[in-house]
Design goal:
Largest sheet: 5 strands, parallel
Structural class: alpha/beta
Number of helices: 11
């Protein structure tokens, strides 16, 4: 109850309200030995039980609307998921329904119905490799000993760091070289099918756009960025038969993954709001097209709650500033 009372002081309702937006990606059926910090269904349910004690969780579109007109309640929060993983439907949705909560799911549409994100190609390639040493020197990516889960995780982290900020074509080539070196088939069911997106919507969840192919917008030409931002919206609207009003920037770090140019593109595409991955909370002064999001990584309830309280104090989140002219 102490955490709740402090949250009420830091996050009052009305004109001085502060909106906490939580960000998730996956909810697994059980703990992944390569990513033990990733949410599994039991852990996700535990986290939601904590959040329910301290915050008033509401749909993101409602929270944004009420923030703008000074009617947001105290301790307001919203839950979001990025990318469009199938386990959001199979594992996250039942937990959300059990706790009586709604969430917004930002979908990268080109991966629907059998696609796979580039980082998952790398992760799953390292996971299924059966040798002890993965030699990627021909691709300029190094050599990795893979005799333990810890070594596999180190290899994954090193490869993702090397590939992440390559140009889009160079990234595709690098990932293809990793997959080819492994020489094994990779899963094609990690991402949602179209009918699962519909199932989320029909269960009372909100669907938002996350571009088509999840590029780092600052790494592609502006004309391609415009297409990515608008195409994801159009695909989802055709599938759902309704407007898609919210957007999430891929990777989402202001001035690194997107800039003020891309904020203008999102606005011009007809979205009513957008979220980044900058930490902090939203206030009436926050750019509605650069809403911050934050989720603690702590395992204990007290530390998780204290980190959320610390985030409530950050009312001036990092944003993509307009260039000086």
């Amino acid at each position: 109850m102490i955490l709740k009372r402090i949250a009420e002081v830091l996050s009052p309702g009305g004109r001085h309200a502060r909106l906490s937006i939580l960000i998730f990606h996956r909810v697994l059926s059980q703990v992944d030995p390569l990513f033990p910090g990733e949410q599994d269904a039991r852990r996700f349910s535990e986290v939601l039980s904590w959040v329910a004690r301290w915050f008033q969780v509401m749909p993101l579109d409602e929270a944004i609307s009420r923030l703008r007109i000074s009617t947001l309640p105290a301790r307001a929060a919203a839950i979001t998921f990025d990318d469009g993983y199938a386990d959001n439907v199979t594992h996250a949705l039942p937990v959300l329904k059990h706790h009586g909560m709604a969430a917004t799911f930002f979908i990268a549409t080109s991966f629907l119905d059998g696609g796979r994100m580039w980082n998952d190609s790398v992760i799953e390639a390292v996971r299924v490799f059966r040798g002890k040493v993965l030699d990627l020197r021909d691709a300029g990516l190094g050599v990795y000993c893979l005799e333990s889960d810890a070594q596999r995780r180190m290899a994954i982290d090193a490869l993702l760091a090397q590939i992440k900020y390559l140009g889009q074509h160079e990234r595709q080539v690098a990932v293809a070289q990793v997959v080819s070196a492994v020489g094994a088939s990779l899963p094609d069911d990690l991402m949602m099918r179209s009918e699962q997106v519909l199932a989320l919507r029909n269960a009372g969840m909100q669907i938002g756009a996350h571009t088509s192919s999840h590029p780092i917008l600052e790494k592609i030409p502006d004309s391609q960025a415009v297409s990515e931002i608008s195409e994801g919206k159009h695909v989802l609207e055709s599938l759902l038969g309704e407007a898609v009003s919210l957007f999430a920037y891929p990777n989402g770090s202001p001035n690194v993954d997107y800039t003020a140019r891309h904020v203008a593109m999102v606005r011009q595409a007809g979205y009513l709001g957008a979220v980044s991955t900058a930490s902090g909370v939203a206030t009436q002064e926050t750019d509605i097209y650069q809403l911050p999001r934050f989720t603690p990584w702590d395992r204990s309830r007290s530390r998780y709650g204290l980190r959320l309280l610390a985030n409530l104090r950050q009312c001036s989140p990092n944003v993509a500033a307009s260039p000086v002219t």
